[in-house]
Amino acid sequence: MRKISRSLQFPLVLVALAMMGITACQKNEAGIVIPEVVSPGLNNNGNGNDTIYIGDSKTIRPQLGNVSGTPTYQWLVNGVEKSTDSVFTFKPAERGDYTISFKVYAGNSLSGYYYRIKVLGPWENGFYIVNEGNYPATGELNFYRNGADSIYQNIYGKVNAGKKLGVTSEYGAIYNGQLYIVSKSGPLVVADAYNLLEKGRTAPLPAEGHAFCGIDNSRGLVSTTDGVYVMDLNTLTLTGKVNGITGETGGMLKSDNFVFVLTKNDGVVVLNAADLSINKKVVKASVGFAKSRDGRIWAGEGKNLYAIDGGNLAVQTYPISFDIYDTWGFWNAGSFCASAAENAIYFAQTGQYGGGSNVYKFVPGIDSTLTVPIVKLPADRELYGAGVRYNPTDTTLVITGMKPGYGVNSQENTLFIYNAMTGALKKSIPYTGYFFPAMPVLN
User: Fold this and answer.
1) How far apart are CA 338 and CA 297, in angstroms?
2) Backbone phi, then psi, for 287, in 5-degree steps?
3) Which end of the chain offers a freer environment for a tag, N or C, measured as fewer CB atoms within 10 Å?
4) Which CA distances in Å does 27 have to 31, 36, 110, 382?
5) Dihedral angle computed from the Cα positions of residues 20, 9, 392 and 14, in that order, rounded to the nearest 10 degrees
6) Beta strands of 257-411 (E only): which ranges?
7) Is 185 in contact with 171 (CB distance < 8 Å)?
8) Which CATH number is 406's domain given?
9) Do both 243 and 100 map to the same domain?
C-alpha cells in the first residue's frame, strides 16, 4: 500500500505545530478498497492545524472518499479515545498543545488523519494594559488581542467578581506564568497570566508600591518609596528589606547574576542575585531599564544615555540633545524598552511632568538615530505613563496615548501600534474611558 504524507510549517505567531495526514490509494495489491480522507474538514484549510481559545469549540467534519460497506470511526485526543462518531466537536478545558487522531475503519482496511490544535488561554494572544484608574477609584486592566480592532475593557473585575486591584495601579509584570500587579496604595495582586484568575494578594504594602522583579522560583523584589522589599512568591509575604538601599526606588531588572535597581538616592544600584547584597553603585541615572541584545543594561538621566555592561558593569555614556526627565515626582515605569530583533533600544522624549509625543529608536554606533524620532504621535495625542513597550510577537511598538489637557480630555485614549523597525503606523485604536493607562504588559 502506498502512503502519502503531507507536512506544513505554520506561522510562528500562531505557534502551531507540524501536521501529518495519512491517506491511502483506492486499492492495494490484494484488491482491498481502502477509505480515503479527501479533506480534513477543519477550517477548510486542508492542513489540520488550528489555534483556539479555552471556552471555544471546533467541530471537525472530515470528508471521506472510496468508502465501502459501513465504516466505523474513532477519535483520540492525546492518545485517549473521546468519540466513535463520524464528526467530532473539540472543546478543551485547559490550554496546551493537542493532537487529535481520527481513524476510519472499513472492512479490513484503515485510514486516518492527525490534527494539531493549540489551545490558548483567554488572555494569552495579546497584551494587558495596566490602568491607574480615576483616583480614588482602584486600578483596572484592559486587554488587546493581537490583530483585533478593539480593546477588552475592565477585565480584572469581570473575571474576578467582587475583587479589586489597589489604588493607582502603576506596574505589571509576567513572571513564571503569573501576572504581578503593583499599585501605589494597597496590596500587590497576583493572577494567572493566561486566564487572569486571581492567585492571591499581599497585605497592603508598607509604602507606596512601584515595581516588581522576579528573582527565582521562590523570591521576588518589590520597589517602594521606602526601599526594596523581598517577597516570598509562595506565600506572597514580605520577608524583609534589601540592606543598603534607602529612600525611593523604582525600576528593577534581573540579568544573569545581577539585579539592577533604580534608586533616587544612589542611581543604579547593582545587587548580587544570590544573596541580594550590593555589588556596586554604578551611575547616577533616574530612568530605566532595558536590556539590549548585546547584553547591556540601559538607563538615562538629563542629556545622557547610559549603557551598563552586563558582565563587568562598566558604563558607556551616550550624550543626547534633550533631557530625559526622572519619574520620581509622579512615578511610572518609564519608557525604556529594547528590541528582540536587532540591537536597539526605544525611549520617549517627555516633559518634566510626563507627556511628550516623540519616541526614539537608538542603535548604538548610528548617531543619527538620536536626532530623528522613529515615532511622532499625532498632534491631538500625547504619551501617558510608561507609554512605550516593544512587542516581540510581531516586532511592533505598543504606545498608549491620551488627548492633551485635563477633565473630559482624559477619557479620550488611543492605542497605537507601530512597526518597530521602520516606525510606520500599523494600527490606531481609539477607546473611551477614564483609564489613565500606566503601562502595557507583554510576555
Assistant:
1) 10
2) -135, 140
3) N
4) 5, 10, 12, 69
5) -50
6) 258-263, 267-272, 278-283, 287-291, 297-308, 315-324, 337-338, 345-351, 354-362, 375-376, 382-391, 396-402
7) no
8) 2.130.10.10
9) no
Contact by Cβ (8 Å): 307, 318: yes
Closest-CA residue to 435 (of 397, 396, 398, 409): 409
DSSP state of 292: -
Q: Of 267, 199, 262, 258, which Cα lies nearest the Cα of 233?
A: 199
Residues 330-362 have pLDDT tens digits of 899 999 999 999 999 999 999 877 889 999 999
Rounded to whole angstroms, the Cα distance separating 85 from 74 reads: 7
Q: Domain holding 53: CATH number?
A: 2.60.40.10
Q: DSSP assignment, residue 354?
A: E
Residues 114 and 204 in one domain: no
106-123 pLDDT, tens digit per residue, is 878 889 999 999 999 999
What's the structural domain count of the chain? 2
For 343, residues 6+ apart whose C-beta sits below 8 A from its C-beta are 292, 293, 294, 363, 364
Cα–Cα distance for residue pair 362/371, rounded to 1 Å: 9
Q: Are residues 89 and 198 in the same domain?
A: no
Same domain for 372 and 424: yes
Q: Is the pTM of this model over 0.70?
A: yes
Q: Are residues 251 and 332 in the same domain?
A: yes
Do 418 and 436 have their domain in common?
yes
Query: Do residue 306 and residue 430 come from a single domain?
Result: yes
Domain end (from 120, 140, 165): 120
